[in-house]
Amino acid sequence: MRFLIISDCYYPTTKSISRHIYDLLKEASIKGTVVDFYFPYNGNKKNIFKKSYLIKNINYFPIKTTNFKKKNLLLRGLSEFLMPFIFWSYIKKNNNHFNKILIFSPSIFFGLIIKKLKRKFKCIVILILRDIFPDWILQKKIIQWLNPLFLLAKIISFFQYYLSDIIAVQSYGDKEIIKKRYPNKNIKVIYNWISPKKFKIRKKNNITNFVFAGTIGPAQNWYNIIDLITKLNKEKLEFKFFFVGDGRYKFFLKKKLIDFKNVYFKRSLQEKKFLKFLKRMDVGIISLDHKIKFNNIPGKFFSYLEVNLPILLDANYKQEVSKIIKHYNIGLTNRNINNDLFKNAKILIEKKINHQEIKKNYKLLLREKFSTKIAYKKIFD
Fold it and tell me: Residue 268 burial (CB < 10 Å; 0-12/13-18/19+)?
């Protein structure tokens, strides 16, 4: 079997989707599945072809692009719009026969070339939907319905939904939402996946280390986190709080938390260093704005899973990630916005949680929901 995979990122980028794709490619290689993988890169091409990123049976096709993520919004939008057409100029030269084509979203713009792909390769297209954009920014009220940029993004995203043969979402809540909009579409639930690395967890000291890892952007509820840190300091509890990542809200947070000497900010780390850092932490924070109705499970969840970190969740209790944390008993979740978050943080500081049980529960969760083997079977078979 041979598959074509298209994504807007891969290593050495620090985005969590890079890790998910790597683990999926590795599983495909073990099973003897041949993959032609197209992805963008910028900077030095040598960084792409590091031995640790290469997998047997995988044919890599890195495509040179500009680093649009660091441009202003207009240039970024234009770069993303042009990206699929640049990809097509390379993909159309490929004369292999493919059983299926897999497209990872984001980006929404690959929908613009799905018709061309289907016409040339005469096979089905599976859309692996990891982020329901631009809808969530409307729920967050970052943008209004009649905003021309939002309407344009909605039209473009329509192409990827309408032209894909199968849409794979990462929660049953999202499946219900997409099914209402596209009742005739074949929609599958495929959770994100991971193949955990094996390493020893370091002994921790008496001070509780909290960590928020990931994009410091608009999808989180930063006022709740600021309120939590303020209350914990007011109670004079012993803790440290680390933010690891980048994003447009980072400066805002630094400014709001400048008076606290136990709050630290680190830039995004390459995966090996990042996991090494997480091993020294005690609690992993996940924050999701309570207005967001979609049920995506954040990439940082899988990093915490890998090092068996108990999770402190700040999100709408109806979110699927909240239900998973409760069901598998791998952390504490809030029902009321501020009070529960503070109470749960105190419980974790006072070590009223069984870390060995957390480790056992993570193993069960991985086996039942988030295994790469499960994802491989659903996607490739």
Answer: middle
Q: Where in the chain is the domain with CATH 3.40.50.2000?
A: 2-190, 208-367
Please state which architecture CATH assigns to domain 2-190: 3-Layer(aba) Sandwich (3.40)
Run of H or E residues at 101: strand 100-105
Would you state the structure tokens that stand for residue 53, as one six-digit string? 């990123």
The predicted pLDDT at position 48 comes to 67
- Cβ within 8 Å of residue 271, ≥6 positions away: 11, 14, 18, 19
Q: Average of pLDDT values for 87-99?
A: 95
Apex CA 153: angle with CA 148 and CA 158, to 5°?
125
Tell me the pLDDT of the chain averaged across its residues. Answer: 86
Say if residues 86 and 65 touch (Cβ distance below 8 Å).
yes
3-state secondary structure 205-231: CCCEEEEEECCCCCCCCHHHHHHHHHH
The model's confidence at residue 57, banded by pLDDT at 50, 70 and 90, is: confident
Is the C-alpha dihedral spanning 18, 24, 30, 36 positive or negative?
negative
| Helix H or strand E encompassing 38 | strand 34-41
Question: With contact defined as beta carbons under 8 Å apart, do 353 and 347 qualify?
Answer: yes
- How far apart, in Å, are the Cα atoms of 287 and each of 80, 115, 200, 224, 300? 27, 38, 27, 9, 10
Q: Which fold would CATH assign to domain 208-367? A: Rossmann fold (3.40.50)
Please say if the pLDDT value at position 69 is more than 70: no
> For 64-72, which contacts have Cβ atoms below 8 Å and span 24 or more sequence positions?
64/40, 65/40, 65/41, 66/42, 67/42, 67/43
Q: What is the arrangement of strands in the sheet containing 166-169, beginning at the earlier edge strand?
A: 58-64, 34-41, 2-6, 100-105, 124-129, 166-169, 186-189
Q: For residue 54, name the pLDDT band (cuts at 50, 70, 90).
A: confident
| pLDDT exceeds 70 at position 210 | yes
Q: Answer yes or no: is pLDDT of 260 > 80.
A: yes
